[in-house]
Fold this protein.
Amino acid sequence: MGLKRKVFGAFAAIAALASGSARLMADPLSDFYKTRNVTISVGSAAGSGFTLYARLIARHMPKYIPGSPNMVVENLPGAGGLRQFDHLVTVAAKDGSVIGLLNPAVAVAPLLTPEISRHSTDKVAWLGSANSEVSTCIVWPHAKVKDLADLKKRELVLGGSGTTGSSGIGAQALKAIFGYPWKIIGGYQGSADIMLAGARGEIDGACILLMSAMRAQYWESFKRGDFTVVLQMPPGNHPDLPGVANTIDLAETDEQRQALEFIYGYWAFGRPFAVPLGVPAERLAMLRTALKATVEDQAFLADSEKMGVSVDYMDPDALQKRVAAILNTSPEVVAKVRALVPANEAR
């Protein structure tokens, strides 16, 4: 009996050691992610360029997340991205299972529309951005705009996602800065709705259509002449728009230039991904690494090329510096822009 007890005890010790080793070798990240979905929330409608990027990321990113979770895209349109931003900060799980693809306009919303913007970007941790953007103003043929002078002569009806969204604010600012006789109609859910309204003749134009969305979704239509790009905005000129005027070059004063850079500068980090504060440090670090690996993945890049989607990765530190630079715009410039763009009035 003594020998049997000793043998049993030895086996028990070995089993305990093996069990302990297995626990030590377990991957807590894999254990967490293999049992759940990861959601990418988007603050615009299903047909938007933001959704296109989110779905592309969702197809390729899981292989860089331990446990290879299923990734799903959730659309929460409204208030130019502020509805989704509020949901990410206040409602979404803070465990690394929810990622937000934010409209970069939310970075300036606390300065431009503080009465409706509940949160600043210090409530999120950046993962990085997938590209930089150039935004445009477009018109449809029925608007009969032949040159820049016509923009000041014709009473155009422009569509936007709302007076507080990037399309609404941008159009209102251009109207005020350059004296354009525009009427701005808000309430569209995203670029797909705006483009459909223009094709139907319900509106004459829109500011903005992002170049990534144009390249991916409307390039053949653009080349056919179904609509015309009449303006492009800071931070730069797009190589596919030679000869199209940039509003920064139309500005006549430093004040106008500073206002335009403030209003449009955030498109330099056009597709920023973030998680709410509170995500455990090891999951945050992993998600940052996974996003970078995804946008550098050859299969991802091949898909991007096929879809006409531009990729220009920006790391979290560079993204944060860009945001900080915009938020450090002088109060005088911000006040003048706010005077140009009433937060709750479509004019």
